[in-house]
Amino acid sequence: MALVARLARTLRFEQPEHLPLEFGSFVAASGFLSGALIAFLTTWIAKGSLESTFSKIRFILVIFGFGISTGFVRGILNPISVSSFDLYKGFLTTKEFFDLVANHLFRFYLNGMVEAVFTLFTGLLGGVIFSSGCLIIWLTLRSKTQIIRYIASFSVMLVLSMAVIIFSSTGPPELLSKLD
Fold first, then answer.
1. What is the C-alpha R_g of the chain?
2. What is the pTM of this model?
3. Between the chain's N and C termini, which has fewer beta carbons within 10 Å?
4. How does pLDDT run across 19-46, given as a tens digit for each residue?
């Protein structure tokens, strides 16, 4: 979803296009880390609720919580990943890189809030996908068969992750730029 959010920032009169592979990898890394952190925290918080009943309110809260919090965390990590790309390409010295990272970390709340607001719609789309995956995994974890619980959880995570990665990497840029 980070790739879609970044693509959607194309200026109005420019033709949207996919990010180059190298730069896109650095942007996707910040999206992966933010999503993984929020997914870990969500799993940790919900670990004791396997026996509870389905709640529409919880489902909606997960959508909004994931959508907003991943944007916020990505806002903290994305400037660092862009600076890392600049260091990798030789546009920055090591000292300039660490100065920029310190500056980004000092302004983490502002960067996070701006990114969360600018990517709210994309984040909510990611929240719907994440929450749907959580629901499917929650239903399969209630199975009595150990192998079904293990394989289903891993399969749902893999299928949804790959679908988002493939769609955001190869989908039509005109459509992707309108998703945010």
1. 18
2. 0.74
3. C
4. 777 887 888 888 888 888 888 887 777 7
